[in-house]
Amino acid sequence: MSPAVTSAVVEVKGITKAFPGVLANDDISFDVRPGEVHSLLGENGAGKSTLMGILSGIQTPDSGGILVDGEPVRIDSPRKALDIGIGTVYQHSTLIPALTVLQNLMLGDSGKLLLDAASARARLEEFGALLGVDVDPEARAADLALGRQQQVEIIKALWRGSRLLILDEPTSMLTPQAVDELYTVLARLKADGLATIFITHKLHEAVSLGDRISVLRRGRMVGTLDAAAVSSTPPDKLEEIVIEMMFGSAAADLADVGELRVGLGEAEAVEAHARATKAAVGEPLLELAGVAAPGEGTDPGVADIDLVVHEGEVVGVAGVDGNGQRALAEAISGQRRLTAGEIRLFGAPVDRLNVLKREKLGLRYLTDDRIGEGIVGSLSISLNLFLKRIGQAPYWRYGSIRRGTIDARAEELCEQFDVRAPGVETRAGTLSGGNMQKVLLARELSFGAKVVVFHKPTYGLDLKTTLGVREMIRQMRDGKAALVISTDLDELLEVSDRIVVLSRGRLVGEAEPGPGAAERIGGMMIGDVSLSLAGAGAEGTE
Amino acid sequence: MSTVPGNELLTEVEVPNRAGDRSGAVGKAIDTVIRSLVPVLLALVAGGVLLLILGHNPFAFYSSVWEHGAQNKAWQESAKRMAPLLLIAVGLIIAFRANIWNLGYNGQFLLSAAIISGLAPSLVNDLPLGLAFLILFVVAGLVGAIWTIVPALLKAFYDTNEIITTLMMSFIGVGLAQILIKGPFQDPSVNIAQTKVLELDKMLPHIPGTKVHIGVLVALAAAVVVYFAISRTSFGLKVDVLGANPRAARHVGIQVKQLIITSFFFSGLLIGLAAAADILGVWGYIRANWNPAYGDTVIPFVFLARLNPLVVIPFIAFFAVLSTGGTLATQEVGLPTDFLLVLVALILLFMTVIEFLGRRRSLGQSYLTNGLREALRLPGRKKDGAAAEAGETPKKVAR
Ligand SMILES: Nc1ncnc2c1ncn2[C@@H]1O[C@H](COP(=O)(O)OP(=O)(O)OP(=O)(O)O)[C@@H](O)[C@H]1O
Ligand SMILES: [Mg+2]
């Protein structure tokens, strides 16, 4: 082997990990070197998080070994991983919201009896200088923007001295500005000699950030593109190669490989939009008139929302995350009370109808908070598919559940929505993020859905699934209606007939996808919190 | 974004990342056995060691427990003891599954007991016996249920921590029971604070061929009915959703407030029935200073049975034998009967140890539902509870 391999900080050899019914990792070998970013890609459920779980001590492998600096180690607890110097940033924040940044960081010191705030503060300053970010140690974690929270997470992962940083889908919830900031931070860490594993579903990120690129497919390592290959291949070609690796021969079946690239250029998006068959717009199905709903916690409310979604129409709601998206979605679904205004569904007011009654009329809400409120992890996939129709015939009869009927229907749905799981009795909490989303989609889009509110419908989904979901949204034009709330402007440009812009809880403008739409919408979003969120991003350009 | 933090970790814990480590049904069965039986066995062993230290022969002691609790006719005493214990256990199971800590069982039980002890003597004389029992059971159930209403409403509408409210209502209930016994229900013919004693032939009838009253059958039937309700009805599924993920319950359109109130209601109802079975089947009267605190001893077994109303039956049977046989056995060797509570406490202790180890190793599922675990960790801070799952607990930040 070449000398480069021996210099790996962390090397994984022949790791195998089986869960009941799935081989999540099948004889995987893989390594990371100092001062490199190693991108890891793979479909939903390919086994990426499992592999990282093994490196960070959450999972123990069935067989195979881990070498750190060439020495075999056993990583049997998260603490051990930190001791060894492997820090992980999970997809969602793990900070304790009520504690300050400093307190959160000092949790990492809790092995010691006495906590030393002064030295912790100094250390935070050191990290701030290293990463080129400026974090207020006394700010409550809950009050930080997501991008900032993530920076704190990175510092937390590095807190005890780190040689490997694992980032599991770090960009899926971030604004473009925050992503830029993350890039800068990673570049600095790289210059400092840290090894990074970077998991993403976004090809262009993997390609532009990764020194090497590895691809997992169904638990197996498909291959690694080495540094020479990555640097000598043009990005376009590279993306094609990676797609081929990810989906194998199936990639060829996908009509247009170029379209697979999430983050389409605007021209392409416009083209995609034109391609979508635009059915005639019909009756108003969902109407909001002067709607106001309160915020919750740090999540702001909405006010003065006037919005109509017609039959056969897909309306997008653009905006920086945390500008009232959740309040808007929950007001429509019935989870949040209105403080003013009226919502009409099929022409009739629904203010007096609760969540269940609205749902029976055909209104669906695909939540953005899959784990928090979408699924019940301890229940089976079958039951999760039927949580919104508990007690309804033919799935319940004479007050008693008919498991046979439910399982049979659940199997059909899993087939139709391509949920990859050992069986419908699998606990939903064990599914990979993408498969959870497919379960939710199956639940919301079946059983007579007419008006669907999609809230961040594709975050964390792999390319193919993302395309599939967008196709499903476009199909809503066929006699139904959709409201798509997303922070991904490209996505909205691709699927919507119209886009409204939400800023600080109010609708501030509207645009139709077309030439220049992205700039106009971007402009409407500017002048709100996005500026202050992104403020730090500009200065970090080494 | 109040909801995002901690989600990833929530999955980590909620999802049997580790349970999955052992594959197949065999592994699961082993996990269950480890979880359920080991604490009991360890407690018995530790209790034995304690006996040795105190200068008693543990083998003699345990066989004496068995002799007085299960052999010959003694099993009948234990069976009778099972009635209130099982009804309370099943009542607690409903609440706990819904992520509701109904800790007001003592007040619910004693208030029901006092009221029917007061009503029974005249009712059984004025009405046909069967009808009188029916009315008394209904009244007992309703009293227990009504005593949950205040905590239920407070929790449903103001998200008030029910651990505190049920405990407070429990104190009030116990006090009120004493007032009733010393006041309106006082038997004027004695000078101890107690109610009139039911005549033996006016107590619950026995199961033919035994001396076991039919209240035991009521308890067993209740366990079966609740098992059915939990595993097959929509109520049961809603309760489980609420218990596992209250936000999901709201999202899928479950009427959370109503469900909280109903779960509380049935929980209290069953605890009230426990009082009727015990008073009408065994005691026939109540004294003002009587408080058997059945609920306290039942709680560990409810969790050992993982909140399953059928699985809890053998555990309750075990404890019934231990408590009836143990009472005599301790007297025999001159130990205070509190030694039995020590055994219960040891079971709890070993459960805690296994729960703790279970989080680090593959020891199957937790005894608690997620919701309950979080409620315990951070009382009153449900929203951020998930975050507390982060490897370290917030307590460690000494401030
Ligand atoms: N604790 C578990 N119990 C059972 N199965 C599990 C568990 N964790 C993961 N799996 C299964 O292992 C497979 C790999 O999951 P993993 O989370 O590693 O995928 P992933 O590549 O991270 O996917 P995604 O991109 O959707 O996050 C999936 O089929 C998943 O259902
Ligand atoms: Mg993953």
Strands, helices and their partners?
The complex is a heterodimer of chains A (542) and B (399).
Chain A: H1 3-6, E1 10-19, E2 22-32, E3 37-42, H2 48-55, E4 63-68, E5 71-73, H3 78-84, E6 86-89, H4 101-106, H5 117-131, H6 146-158, E7 164-168, H7 176-191, E8 195-199, H8 203-209, E9 212-217, E10 220-225, H9 227-232, H10 235-247, H11 250-253, H12 266-275, E11 284-293, E12 302-310, E13 313-318, H13 325-333, E14 340-345, E15 348-349, H14 355-361, E16 363-366, H15 370-374, H16 381-385, E17 396-397, E18 400-401, H17 403-416, H18 433-445, E19 451-455, H19 463-475, E20 481-485, H20 489-495, E21 498-503, E22 506-511, H21 517-525, H22 529-534
Chain B: H1 7-14, H2 24-53, H3 58-69, H4 74-97, H5 105-126, H6 129-146, H7 149-158, H8 162-182, H9 215-232, H10 234-244, H11 246-251, H12 256-283, H13 294-304, H14 312-333, H15 338-360, H16 370-377, H17 382-385
Helix pairs in contact in B: 2-3, 2-15, 3-14, 4-9, 4-12, 4-13, 4-14, 5-6, 5-8, 5-12, 6-12, 7-8, 7-12, 9-10, 9-12, 10-12, 13-14
The complex binds adenosine-5'-triphosphate and magnesium ion.
Report on the architecture of this protein.
The complex is a heterodimer of chains A (542) and B (399). Chain A is an alpha/beta fold. Chain A has two domains: 3-226, P-loop containing nucleotide triphosphate hydrolases (Rossmann fold, 3-Layer(aba) Sandwich), CATH 3.40.50; 277-369 and 452-462 and 475-531, P-loop containing nucleotide triphosphate hydrolases (Rossmann fold), CATH 3.40.50. Chain A is 36% helix and 23% strand. In chain A, a hairpin with an 8-residue loop joins strand 11 and strand 12. In chain A, helix 12 (266-275) runs parallel beside helix 20 (489-495). With 399 residues, chain B is mostly helical. Chain B has a domain at 85-314. Chain B has 17 helices and no strands. In chain B, helix 5 runs antiparallel to helix 6 (129-146). The longest helix of chain B has 30 residues, at 24-53. The two termini of chain B are 25 Å apart. At the A-B interface, helix 14, helix 15 and strand 18 of A face helix 1, helix 10 and helix 11 of B. The complex binds adenosine-5'-triphosphate and magnesium ion. Magnesium ion (MG) binds next to helix 2 of chain A. Adenosine-5'-triphosphate (ATP) sits between chains A (19, 22, 24, 42, 44-50, 420, 430-434) and B (15-17, 20).
